[in-house]
Every structure is written in C-alpha cells, then in structure tokens.
Amino acid sequence: MYHPSVPNYVRITDVSPRDGLQNEPGTVPTADKLALIGHLVAAGVDEVEATSFVSSKWIPQLADAPQLVERLAYLWSSGEAEGAPEPWPELAASDLPCEFSALVPNQEGLSAFVAANINPLAPDIAGGPLGKASIFTAASETFARKNTNASIAETIARFEPVVSAAHQRSLVVRGYISCAIACPFEGPTAPEKVAEAAIALSELGVDELDLADTIGVATPDQIELMLAAVLDVIGDEWLEASPEGYAPGLTLHLHDTQGRAAACIKRALEVGVRSFDSAVAGIGGCPYASTPSMRAPGNIATELLVKTIREAGFESSIDLDRLAIAAAFARSIVERARVGAASVGGGGAARGSGQR
Fold it and tell me: Which residues are catalytically annotated?
C-alpha cells in the first residue's frame, strides 16, 4: 500500500506473475502462481499484477486467470488458508497490505475479470481482491497492430467502454503505453508520440499511466526527454499522490535488456517519478527483444529496483530477506516450466494480445 506520509517513499508494483510468466514456453501451475503472489505480498510490495484476462489462444500461460483470482479471493476474504501453498497460511491470518491488479484487453476480458473477482463471503454486494484493471496501447503503430491487432486509435476507442464499466465498479484503471522509448519494428519512438498516447488515455479517464520501455534500450537522457514530453501535456500533478492519498498517477515500466535500467531509474527519480514496475528475479521481458540465439533479459529485477532507490536516498516497504525468498521461488518455478516445455517439445512464447 502506498505511504504518502513517508518522505521519499517509492511505490513498487511487482508484475512477475503476469509479465514475468506470460512469455515462458511452459506453463506454471496455478498453485505455484498463487504461492509466488504470496511471497511477493510477504516481501512487502505495494501491488502485485496477478494475471491477465486475455484469450487462452494468445496467452495460454495465463489461461488459468479465473481460477487463480477465485482462489486468491477466497484467501483474501476468508482468512482461512488450509491446504494453501506457503506463505499463505501465515498471510491469511493478517490484513494484506498489498493491492492486486490484472490486465484486460477488451470488454470480454473485463467481464471475465468481474466474474472471477468476487468476495465469496458477500458475492452480491462486494468485489474481490482485484482493485485495478489495466488496459494497454502503444506509441508505435506497428507494435500496436502486432500486439493488439488494432491501430493506436482503435485501441483507445476499444477501451472507452472498458474504462467506463470499470469505474462503475469502483475499479482503478491503469493505462499502459508500450514502446515509450523504442519499437522493435519502427526503431526509436519520438517522445511526442508517447505524449499523444498519454493525452488520449488521460482523456479516456484512466487513473494511472504506465510508460513502458518495452525492449529495454533506454538511456537516462531518453527517459528524461520522454517524461518531459509526457508531463508537458498531462501536467506535473500526475507525479503526485491523489488527495485521497492514492499512489502517484505516473509509473515507469523498464526492461533491463541493455543493463541500463538502474541508471534510468535514478534519472526518473530526479525528474520526480515515485512509482515503478519490476519483476522479482528479473523474469519476463519482451519476446521481440530476444534473438534466436539469446533470450533477452526481462523486467528490471525488484531486487535491483530496491537497491537502486535506496542508494538514491529513497524508501520502500520491501523486506529484503523475504524478497530473496520470493526471487529464489520465482527462479525455481520458471526453471521447472522451461524444463517441462522442453521435455514435451514446447514451443515459444505467445506473440499477441498481451502488453509487453
């Protein structure tokens, strides 16, 4: 949970259960995903992006989203964790100081989100653990078409009823913008294109903007220029917490393909960004950034993010010992999934309908 009263507090969203697992060639069992979420909650992250309600045809790795959220809802609401994977027996007996979110690609995805996100103790009057729905577009037309099968304008139009319906259910809406620095097909992205997408999403009514260096090639100077262009059109108030104390409206999502993500974090902190995405153990990443002979490094590791912000004089709610346990567990389940996929001749990662 965001702590606006703590000076220099930085909010951390761990996206490993979604962005970290969706591109793996093998499928991680639902129980292991639930355990990973539990380890992240125990480590003290502010938010966990738990899954994505996309078509199983495009992202089979996350086909169990309804089942995962239903199990999470039971633990979240009942406080009973008999038979649940570690560390849930410990967590279920206490308040969970963590928010949960999931990605939705369209109205159908939001309908599935809502159907699964129910408090089993009060199904007719209360929602479940997911308090945020995330939508996604891009600053690159080519990437938008390959990733969403639609143009940028079409994705914005597609999400208008999604945002409205989400707000009617008191859900926070996050809007991702992929390729905020560069596109694997078009090359460098002009900061003005990111600003155009940002103003379109803000006019749509999203509560948060999440700017993603999808293929992990940013330099600190590029990050600063891109942020300046975006803030010029949406206003510096997006860097601040809401009057209700909710998290800053602007988040940065970095991949560490070139090993410069930590330097980019430091520059973003200087600009005023106080909310970042990461993935424990650095898992995940964009399949378009890999080559036939080398898998690209994934999201900036939550461990590296915490180290970077603390070295820069900022605070987080992370327990480093618990985070190390979460990282070891994440590596183990990913390795098992890869071994399992190789043993049955499993193929590559999905290529569409999932924000990168």
Answer: 286
309-320 pLDDT per residue, tens: 999 999 999 999
**Among 57-66, 287-296, 343-352, which is the least confidently predicted range?**
343-352
CB 92 within 8 A of CB 84: yes
Residue 263 parent element (H or E): helix 261-271
Q: Half-sphere exposure of 61 toward its Cβ, with a 13 Å CA cutoff?
A: 33
* CA quadruple 27, 29, 33, 35: dihedral, nearest 10: -150
Does the pTM exceed 0.85? Answer: yes
Q: Please write the tens of the pLDDT for every residue from 44-62.
A: 999 999 999 999 988 999 9
- 162 closest CA partner among 118, 119, 102: 102
- Alpha-carbon distance of 296 to 304, in angstroms, equals 17
List CB contacts of 196: < 8 A, sequence separation 6 or more. Answer: 139
Question: Which strand (E) or helix (H) includes residue 147?
Answer: helix 141-148
Round to whole Å and give the CA distance between 293 and 314: 38
For domain 11-343, the CATH architecture is Alpha-Beta Barrel (3.20)
Separation between Cα atoms, residue 201 and residue 109, nearest integer Å: 18
Helical spans, DSSP H, in 272-319: 302-311
CA distance 47 to 198: 22
Average pLDDT, the chain: 91
Q: Give domain limits for the chain.
A: 11-343
> Does the structure show a pLDDT above 50 at 351?
no
Q: How far apart are CA 279 and CA 231, in angstroms?
A: 26
